[in-house]
Every structure is written in C-alpha cells, then in structure tokens.
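Sorry to interrupt, but I need a hand with the structure work. Could you write out one complete protein record for me, on any chain you like? Just paste the record in under my message, thanks.

. . .
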Amino acid sequence: MTRIKPSSDEEMGDSIDFLKPTIERLGFLPNSQRIMAQKPELLFGINELYKAIMHRSEGSLPPGLLYLVGNASSLAAGCMYCVAHSGGAASHNGIEEEKLAAIWEYETSDLFSEAERAAIRFAQASSSVPNMVTDEDFEDLKKHFTEYQIVEMLSIIGLYGFFNRWNDTLATPLEDGPKAFAEKTVAKAGWTPGKHET
C-alpha cells in the first residue's frame, strides 16, 4: 500500500501541462511523478534531468541500451516498480523481451553481446551499496564505449538510483500497463509487484 497518495490530475494543477509529453509517450502519467507533484519544483527538475540524459547526439547510445542498463540497475537495487517501467521502456525501444527475461544470465546467455555484458556488469556494480565498480570494469567498458557514452550510461544509472529509492521507499503503486508487461515478460524470472501491488 502506497505511503503517499498519488495526486489526481486536478490536484496537480498546472504541473500536468508540462508533463503532456510524458503522458503522450507512455499513455499515462506514472504514479511516481504524481507523488512528486507534492513538490512541483522536484517534478520539474527530475523531468529536465531525464530530458538531458535522453537527449540524442551523434555519439549517443541507443535508447534501448540505456533502458536495458536502467533495468539492470533497478534489478540490482530490487525496485520492482522500476524494473517494470525500465523493462517496458527497453522493449519499446527495441530490446527483445527474451533478453529482458534472461538479464540475470547475461554473462552466459548467447542473447547478449560483449558490449551489453560490460554495460550490465557496470550497472550492477555501480548500483550496489557500497559501490563495487573497479578499474577493470572501466577498462572493459572502454573496449566498447566512448567516454561520452560511459557518462551517458552512468547518468541513467544515477537517475534510476533516485527512482529506485523513491519508489521502493514510498511503495509507489504500479500502473496497469507496466505491471502487465512485467507479468508477461519477467515474472518467470522471479519478478513480482510486491509492495507495489495496487
């Protein structure tokens, strides 16, 4: 059961206006942002950060890979709300559902490239407490990615780090779409909505 009730459209007032792109992209406004509406400045700031991270440039990583990294980060943190959301976003951006279902087997599964293995390993290590990233992790990353791309990757890991803490602490209720996706795709690998059940 959620610890702070998500705001309705009416309660959000003018905040709903700048979130229209999010609503159009997802088909709904995530409950995590409906709770953030308690402090509109936070809601605005986190959306600006998201836009900066996902801004595409010539050297950017594909969005699907960024969301796959976010998914691995959320799995390492144990936030099932964010696992459902990041998994759905990764799938929407071209990552195969079989790959998402097999993410814990990334080291041995033929579904993953060496670059993806390095990225997922980095996501898990940097999402651990205490941080477990080593110099060897960076050497491995630099075989596959530019420094710009590594910064981009760590940016989404940091963003999901915030969302993982936020949603797990608040027991944010999971929306129907992400829940259905996770039940279809990753439930066999052990995913359950847990505290995020509505």
